[in-house]
Amino acid sequence: MKNVKAIVVDLDKTLLHTDKTISAHTAQVLRECKKRNIKIMIATARPLRDTIQYYETIPFDAMAVSNGARIICKNEKIEYDILPQSAKKLLTALENHRNLRITVETGDRAYSNKPIGDYETTLSNDLVSIAEKEGVLKILVHIDSDEALPFIEGELTEDLYRTIAHGYLIQIMSKVATKWNGVKTMLNATNCHPKETAYFGDDYDDIESIKMCGIGVAVSNSVNEAKNAADYIIDSNDEDGVAKFIEKQILKNLP
Predict the structure, then answer these.
(1) What is the DSSP letter of 146?
(2) Residue ranges of the chain whose pLDDT lies below 50
(3) Are 4 and 38 in contact (CB under 8 A)?
(4) CA-CA distance, 132 to 181, in Å (whole number)?
C-alpha cells in the first residue's frame, strides 16, 4: 500500500451512489489523494458528455470513457472507433431484426431507433447513415428477449467484442477499445505502473483491470466474477466503500 501512485475507479455502482452523486466524504478523500501526489483516474462505460460533470467535483488526472473507446490524458484525446465497414454491417443486421432497441454512440451524441427511457438519445430510423457520417465509438443493444444475445454474437465481425452491463445491456466496441487498454494508456501518460495502481470496479468490464493492477478491489455490490478476481472486497457504492478503503488502507500507509 505504500507504493500506490495511482487510483483508477469505475463510476456507476462503484464510486457513485445509486443516485449518481459523489458523496462529500468521497470527494474529500480523493482530493486528499491528489494533495499526496496520487493520480486519480476514472475508467467508465459512460460517454464523455455524461462524465464531465464529475470532473467539476474531482479534477481527474485522466479519463477513459465509453469503455476505453475515448481516452483523455492532459490535453490529448485518443479514440478507438469501430471500423466503418464493421459498423455498417452490424447496424444493417440489427436494424433488419425485429424489435431490437439499438443505440449508436458517436462520442458527442447518442442516437437510437426507439426511446430508451432515462437515457437521452436522438431518435433516428437510419442509424447506418449516422454511423457513416459521424463514426461510432459504441453500439448498445438492450436484451429484450432470449434470442437477442445469440443473434448479436453471430453478427459480430472479428474486430469487435461485446460485454453485458447491468445484466441487460449489450455493449459492442472495437477490440482495442477496452477499459484495460484505456487504463494502460492513462498510466503510461502519467508515468505510473500497473503494479503501483489500485483499481476499483464492479462489473464484467472491470475484471481485467482488477486482475492486472497491483491492487484489485471490488465493491460488495459487484457481480460475483469481479469479486472472485479481486484482492479485496469492500463496502458497497452507497456505503462509500471506495473512500473508506483508500482512507484506511492507502492514505494511512503512506510514508
Answers:
(1) T
(2) none
(3) yes
(4) 25
Gyration radius of the chain over CA positions = 18
| CB-based burial, 172-205: b 16+ in 10 Å, e otherwise | bbbeebbbbbbbbbbbebbebebebbbbbbbbbb
What is the side-by-side strand order in the sheet with 215-219? 76-79, 70-73, 62-65, 39-43, 6-9, 197-201, 215-219, 232-234
Q: What are the b/e assignments for 115-126, b being 16+ CB within 10 Å? A: ebeeeebeeeee
In tens, the pLDDT along 51-70 reads: 999 998 999 999 999 999 99
**All 3 cell numbers of residue 176?**
482495442
Residue type, 116: I
Grid cell at residue 140: 448498445
Q: What would the grid cell of residue 188 be?
A: 503510461
One-letter amino acid of 161: Y
Match 475515448 to its residue by C-alpha cell: 70
